[in-house]
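Sequence, please.
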């Protein structure tokens, strides 16, 4: 049974995103990006031990567009410079709201399998953490799964620890 892990990190300095050759980042740019995000999600999570089911544009609407925190600037896409239609990674800065507070959370980090191991994941995470830093907040949260080894290793390397 896969175990959900709640992780958090205190930011002590503003991350400086490092360029990755041939890759650039941009924000969500409109409805055409919905299909790109759905395709990326399905390919990035295809080999995960804990499967994620197929999603439609309605799921995207529910997960992102309908949220009170949603802004296009909260979602980043990594694309190749050579072919900007080639979307290779994504991450979203969401907010988890509860009665007492409202936290910045890493949401749906994913990199296409054949573009992994080049620093795209780190670039997306540095960019998201820098955006949190710029709001004046100094802590980030996320949820992941025990079975997702690459993600777990990356978060540990970046200083994320179990909540509590
Ligand atoms: C997690 C993920 C986003 C990392 O993306 P990436 O572009 O390969 O990451 P980077 O190249 O920036 O590597 C960052 C770190 O991730 C870890 N990592 C990357 N590939 C790995 C692998 N094959 N095995 C173990 N750890 C790995 C390492 O700690 C690595 O740092 P290092 O190269 O200094 O050892 C990517 O593997 C992915 O999309 N996985 C499937 C979706 C997923 O699990 N998302 C997270 C949901 S919570």
């Amino acid at each position: 049974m896969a175990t959900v892990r709640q992780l958090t990190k205190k930011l002590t300095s503003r991350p400086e995103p490092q360029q990755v050759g041939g890759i650039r980042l941009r924000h969500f740019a409109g409805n055409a990006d919905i299909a790109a995000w759905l395709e990326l999600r399905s390919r990035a999570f295809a080999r995960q031990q804990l499967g994620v089911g197929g999603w439609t544009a309605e799921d995207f609407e529910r997960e992102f567009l309908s949220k009170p925190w949603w802004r296009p600037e909260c979602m980043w896409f990594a694309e190749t410079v050579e072919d900007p239609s080639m979307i290779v990674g994504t991450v979203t800065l969401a907010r988890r709201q509860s009665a007492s507070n409202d936290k910045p959370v890493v949401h749906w980090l994913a990199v296409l399998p054949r573009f992994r191991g080049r620093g795209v994941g780190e670039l997306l995470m540095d960019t998201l953490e820098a955006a949190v830093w710029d709001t004046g907040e100094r802590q980030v949260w996320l949820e992941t799964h025990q079975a997702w080894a690459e993600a777990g290793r990356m978060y540990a390397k970046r200083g994320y620890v179990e909540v509590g």
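Residues 4-162 form a domain with the Aminopeptidase fold (CATH 3.40.630.30).
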